[in-house]
Amino acid sequence: MELFGITISYAAIWIAAAVLFIIIEVATQGLATIWFAGGAVVAAIATLFISSVIAQVIIFLAVSILLLYLTKPLQRKYRIGKVKTNVDAIVGKIGFVEETISPGAFGQVKVGGILWTAMSADSLAAIARGEKVTVEGVEGVKLIVSPGAEQEQP
To answer: What is the SS3 string spanning 73-126?
Structure first.
């Protein structure tokens, strides 16, 4: 292939593609392009034996898909799951009502030693002071709670 008067081999193009995919992989760290890098390396090797560009592209795609298929289960198995942080970590926790939650109104709930503004998941139900509640969700900076709890507060 000739580009700007310079003859470039297809192997060099495939190696450049592999390097580009590796750079993208390092930048994103999400295992998004590593399979394509492997496919590009195999396609570069294939240029030693096959001169057809279409065949090289087919090899690139086939190896990339095969690597994706074979390694995706390993990625799922060894992936570190999303760690709940800050407010997300409070969902499912047990708390105690510090200020009665009236129907359709806010009250106060203590969860993990921190006082939160909270409302009942059932807008028609009241939850009395001292009752145990489970955090069902978070809307803005307010907890959505339901009466009762399955586990003791940690």
So the answer is: HHHHHHCCCCCCCHHHHHCCCEEEEEECECCCCCEEEEECCEEEEEEECCCCCC
Residues 74 and 99 in one domain: no
Provide the domain count of the chain: 2
17, 46, 78 - which closes a domain: 78
Spatial neighbors of 148 by CB under 8 A, at least 6 apart, are: 131, 132, 133, 134
Please work out, in degrees rounded to the nearest 5, the angle formed at the alpha carbon of residue 25 by the alpha carbons of 31 and 37.
Answer: 90
Summarize pLDDT for 22-67 with one digit per residue, the tens. Answer: 999 888 877 778 889 999 999 999 999 998 999 999 999 999 999 9
DSSP 47: T
Query: If you ran DSSP here, which 8-state letter would residue 127 be given?
Result: B
- Which residues, 6+ apart, have CB-to-CB distance to 146 below 8 Å? 120, 121, 122, 133, 134, 136
User: Taking the complete model, does pTM exceed 0.85, yes or no?
Assistant: no
Query: Between vectors from CA 47 to CA 41 and to CA 52, what angle results, nearest 5°?
Result: 125
Structural domain harbouring 73: 2-78
Reply yes or no on whether the pLDDT at 121 is more than 80. yes
